[in-house]
Amino acid sequence: MDTMTSDSLNLTVHHHGTPHTFNLSSDTTLQDLSSLLATSLHIPPENQKLLIAPKPGMQKAPFPATRLDNIIPLDSPKLKITLLGSPAKEINDLNTQLADTRRRNEARAAARASAASSPASRPSRRSGGIHTLSDSGDSYTFHRLLPLPYLPNPSRSHEFLARLRDDPGIRASMAKHRFSVPLLTEMNPAEHTTMDSRTLGLNRNKGQVIELRLRTDAYDGYRDYRTIRKTLCHELAHCVFSEHDRDFWNLTAQIEKEVDAADWKHGGRRVTEQDFYNPDDWEAEKDAEVIDERGWTGGEFVLGGPRQDAVGEERLRKDKDKGKQEE
User: Fold this and answer.
1) Do the beta carbons of residue 170 and residue 180 sit within 8 Å?
2) What is the pLDDT of residues 43-57, one digit of tens each?
3) Which domains are assigned to the chain?
4) Start and end of every WLM domain (predicted)?
């Protein structure tokens, strides 16, 4: 309980549910109390609001140099003083976080704008507007690798992207199908994860940009290489077919076989001795996660879900049954 004598005053101020009791002189003003709170609780006066009940109610900066015993009913049993305000450090931390988020978004936007404006990303007359066709054997590759610079350790992501680009199976299949992709980049898991699904890959504008989920959801590790490579085969097929029709699934299966065959001939290798997160295998993972829904132009979709595998398998089954009936 707050008490006052002729020479001193015991006053309790509540902040975030915690009481703070101060021994003050009897002639302390509201302005003096504000300065004391700034010193002891590190809350600047301009961030302070004092809710004094039952009266005089809410007090805000600048606080008057009026004695407390003239404006506060110190003898009231219902007296309660509540301080509303955040310490300067919390505010600075929040401002820093907001600035970091803004920088990350600007960096991402700049990277996309750079990829879109680069000569390699512009459709040529020969390609008919499709970014993945090229007449030069040296162009059957990913021309630029882009790890996300605002995520931890982007150098590891660059190594992973380089391993995919230089994978013998990927190189062989891209050369066979004359795929030339201006940009291969990593996907930010936080931007493509919902309670119902996790997108593993995106193909933007039929091969202008391919994004792959390299990292675990918590950014603390990397996914299984073979699983990511399987996703890349899927996204490469979208360079030709947008819909998940029979032609798409046939091309996906063909690319996967070409990649696996070339990998068998040359032998697998690790790009690094660092540990990666390894799901059980692709077959177990594909039913629980999302590859994508389709290649797309001029928009962004949450791609896939259980519907994708079900629809694809159902279409293949119907096509096979139709073929048997025709025979």
Assistant:
1) no
2) 999 889 999 988 888
3) 11-86 (3.10.20.90), 142-267 (3.30.2010)
4) 133-325
